[in-house]
Amino acid sequence: MAYLAKILLYPIKSLDGVEAEQATVLPSGPLQYDREFAIVDAQGRFVNAKRHLKIHSLRANFSLTERVIHLQLPPSNLYQVFHLEQEQEQLAASLSGFFGFSVKLRQNTNMGFPDDTNSPGATVISTATLKEVASWFPGVSVEEIRRRLRANIEIGGVPAFWEDRLFTDSGETVSFQVGDVQFLGVQPCQRCVVPTRDSYLGEAYPNFQKIFLQQRQATLPSWVAASRFNHFYKLSVNTRLPASEAGKTIKVGDNIEILQLQS
């Protein structure tokens, strides 16, 4: 039986994540605290791993309840501690020194800063999929693939690519239940350059995207809605949630069940 094996939240976009035992759905659909903050430059552009390789070397630990980040900025081995509400300017100043240009911290408690603003709900993948993908890349662990793909919800008790059941032909969504919370699976997630790199060092894995494309096509289940794959550099599922689910909570161990297609 499918169940919720892990919840991973990423309080500051592009920085390390934090594992949680439960998470609450925001009115706009995302999980509370996920991508709540983003680092931006003077022009308001995201300072993220897609555009700034250096960000991979930052290490961050979060306390969600205390609203604190412990941040390690190379070359120092020491962690600096900042309150995410009360010390945003001090945090931005330290980050500006690290990047070598002025940055600010932006906050959005309603939606956060998801890549897909049309489907801002939690991204979904299965543990078995992570294990399968790791097997494509000798020397890359399952945990490293997890860090590269940065999904929010991880499903246990199912075979690899089970989450591909959570989308269908364009224009329809798939309704599924996590505990008491209804999600709508929308589409496979198009990947960017970030998964090609070591999540700690930023070093590129040789031919990562080529290998991924070949293996994803070769292992694509026969029942998948193939029309959603104009290319095969896609993995995990983007979701959105009905407004009725706002304020509800998902918990590790919750059962997961596919309900029906939604037009």
UniProtKB/TrEMBL annotation:
Residues 88-259 form the MOSC domain. PROSITE patterns: MOSC. GO terms for molecular function: catalytic activity; molybdenum ion binding; pyridoxal phosphate binding. It comes from the Bacteria. Pfam families: MOSC, MOSC_N. This is MOSC N-terminal beta barrel domain-containing protein. It comes from Anabaena sphaerica FACHB-251.
